[in-house]
Amino acid sequence: MMTTVQGESVDVRTADGVADAYVAYPDDGAAHPGVLVIQDGFGLRPSLRSLADRIAAHGYTVLLPNAYYRHGRAPVIELPDFIDPAQRPEIFEQVVPMIVELTPELLRSDAAAYLAWLAASPLVAEGKVGLTGYCMGARLAVLIAAMFPDRVAAVAGFHGGPLVTDTPDSPHLAAGNITAELYFAHAGEDHHMTPEHIARFDKALDAAGVRHRTEIYDGAQHGFTQADTSAYDAEAAERHYRELAALFGRNLRT
C-alpha cells in the first residue's frame, strides 16, 4: 500500500557543523519507522530525493543526508541532469577526495548525529531503523550497522563497494558486530566487486552468524538503481525497490 508523501529540507547538527539533509515521510500525521539513506558518490540531488520519496511511500520516515556537508550544502559539485561518467571523468576527480575523506572516525561521528536526529524526530516511531546505501553508501551502511548494532535492524546495499579491502577498516572485518539483517544486490557487471570479493564478504557474514542474503543482478551495471545515470537499469531498479520493501517490512514493522 503506497501512501502520499511529503518532503522537506532539514539541517542535522553534527560534531563538525551542520549537515543539510532531505526528509520524506507519509502525509498522515503519524510516526513511522525510520530509514537512513546513504548516498552514492555523486551526492544528494533530485534523483536521490525521488528515491527517498519512493521508500517513504511504503510507510517510513526517510532521512537522506548530504555526506559531503563539510564542503558545503548540496549540490556540493555541479552535476549534469544526466550523469555519464565516461563523458564527464572530471566528476570523479571532484568526488573521490571527498569519499576518501570520510574516515571511520568521521563516519561514526556523522552517523551518530543522523541516528540521534531520527530518534528525536516526532515523525519517527520508536525502535531500530533501517539503512540502505548505494555504491559507496553500501560500504558506509555496513560500517554504521557494525558501529551502532543497537540502533540498526536492517541494512540493504546496492552495487556497493569496496566491501572487502586489505585495510583495517574493511567492512567485512566488522561483520562480527552486526545484529541487523543484511540484503546485498551486486551488479553483474561491476569491477568494484569481483566474484572473489563477493565470496569473501559472504564468508565473513556467514562466519559471524549474520542473517543475510546476497544476489547478483545479472547484466546490470554498477549504479543500476540511479535513474539519472548512464548505468540505470529500470528492471533492476524495480527489483531493488521490491527487495527493500520486503527487508524493511520484516525488520521494522512491530
UniProtKB/TrEMBL annotation:
Broad EC category: hydrolase
Keyword Hydrolase: yes
InterPro entries found in the cross-reference section: AB_hydrolase_fold, Dienelactn_hydro, Dienelactone_hydrolase-like
E.C. numbers: 3.1.-.-
GO function terms (MF aspect): hydrolase activity
Transmembrane regions listed in the UniProt entry: none
Every Dienelactone hydrolase domain range: 20-250
Entry keyword set: Hydrolase
A Pfam family per the record: DLH
Stated name of the protein: Dienelactone hydrolase family protein
Organism: Nocardia niwae
Taxonomic path: Bacteria, Bacillati, Actinomycetota, Actinomycetes, Mycobacteriales
